Each structure stands twice: as C-alpha cells, then as structure tokens.
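Anyone up for a design puzzle?
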C-alpha cells in the first residue's frame, strides 16, 4: 500500500495526472444499517435454528420480495445464511436459516 502511494506521488510529480484513490462511503460487501439485508439478517437471527421459506421472510421483514431475494443472495455469498431444498414442496424451493 505504501509503495502504491509513493508511486502515485512520483507519477503526480511527473505530471501524469494520477490522483490518490478517493474514499468510497458505500464500499461493496458492507451491510448498511436500515437496508433490506440488515432487516433479513436480523429477522433470521431472531429465528435462529428455524428454517424459513422466502414468503415467511418477506412477511416477517415487511420488505419487498425482490429486496429479500437480493439480501438472501448476498447473505449466502457471505456464508451468514444457509439453505436446504424444501422436500415438502419441490427441491427447487429453498428454506433458509442463519448459519450456526
């Protein structure tokens, strides 16, 4: 990191127009307060140990189905939520729970 900043400073002195990387107030991969992802995670942690359907999560959080879809995708990628096929209905349907 220090070497990169030194290189940027040298390039700026040479007049190549490189700038110091700017601060990003919304970095990717961060769960923000008040977001649908935070609401889904809080709901899942409150029901820890229970497998829930997508419809139960939508109803419990009061968020739209699409925002819950994106939240579950993100939480699964971060391994905060796990899923299993719903054998009572069809294996394409999933049940979710907070990771132990």
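Challenge accepted. My sequence:
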């Amino acid at each position: 990191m220090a070497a990169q900043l030194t290189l940027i400073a040298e390039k700026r002195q040479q007049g190549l127009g490189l700038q110091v990387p700017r601060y990003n107030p919304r970095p990717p991969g961060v769960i923000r307060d008040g977001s649908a992802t935070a609401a889904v995670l809080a709901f899942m942690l409150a029901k820890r140990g229970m497998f829930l359907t997508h419809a139960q999560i939508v109803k419990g959080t009061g968020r739209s189905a699409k925002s819950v879809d994106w939240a579950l995708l993100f939480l699964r990628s971060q391994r905060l939520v796990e899923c299993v096929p719903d054998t009572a209905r069809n294996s394409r349907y999933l049940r979710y729970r907070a990771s132990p």
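A detail worth pointing out: The longest helix spans residues 65-77.
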